[in-house]
Amino acid sequence: MKEILRILEKIAPLQLSEDYDARNGIQVEGPNVDVTGILTCLDVTPLTVKKAIESSCQLIISHHQPILTPLKTILKSDWYGEIAILALKHDITIYSVHTPYDAVEGGLNDYVGKLIGLEEMYPLQHHGGDLNSPHGMGRLGKLKEPVYLDDFAAHVRESLNASTLKVVGKGKRMIQKVALGTGNGLALISTVLKSGADVYVTGDVQYRDMRGMVQNGMSLIAVEHDDTEKFFSKAMGEAIKRFLPSMKIVEYNDKFYHTLN
Fold first, then answer.
1. Cα(227)–Cα(76) distance, rounded to whole angstroms?
2. Quick check: pTM over 0.85?
3. Most CB atoms closer than 10 Å: which of 35, 63, 148, 235?
4. 3-state DSSP call for residue 82?
5. Share of the chain above pLDDT 70, in %
6. If residue 37 lies in a helix (H) or strand (E), which one and from where to where?
7. pLDDT by residue (tens digit) across 4-44?
8. Between vectors from CA 221 to CA 186 and to CA 138, what angle results, nearest 5°?
9. Mind listing the pLDDT tens digit for each residue in 131-140?
10. Count of alpha carbons within 13 angstroms of residue 26, beta-carbon side
11. Domains along the sequence of the chain with CATH
């Protein structure tokens, strides 16, 4: 287990955590056992832990932390309590990397950027304000050729297999320079507006934020939060395989809501 945790620190250094996101790393610590299987996921739910048990995985690696605030009690009847009790009972460690994997070079933003066709990407907001750092939140890149906004939006929806998609801006506007923020990209909007991007692709955008983009002349493509982050399980699995080619990886995402068409 300790060897795997050292590898995870190389893949997504915890020092890249944003100030508001300090609870990265070990969430539930099991024993230092030999790891023969790893489950990667976006969110940890009781079903996620049960899947790890069924799949004989000793380690769960998630993007979102299951525990964001200190627990006062641990109860079987509680979501968080059930996760912790199940994991400890079956000697499973739970490890989360949220903003470190968003920020790191080659992490989730780069993975999703490639999926939607971005080239020459670099951070929208460099880590620690160091402009020479390859790490940071969001990405700014460009498309190989200029395209109409609506055509690019259709491409994004197909590439991400997005359940819903909203477009702000004139559909026949030509765009090429693209800003990207996986997950909730609201914190990057002010940076995006100064970046010279033609369009911003992100999730979790509220109505007033869309209106603000219109007022600032910025086009926006907004999908659901998890439609930009559900690729964590695959991306992290591939990253681990580069260090441990023979490791069993189980990709699992328990989507706990559905969208009516």
1. 31
2. yes
3. 63
4. helix
5. 100
6. strand 37-41
7. 999 999 999 999 999 889 899 999 999 988 999 999 999 99
8. 45
9. 999 999 999 9
10. 14
11. 2-100 (3.40.1390.30), 105-228 (3.40.1390.30)
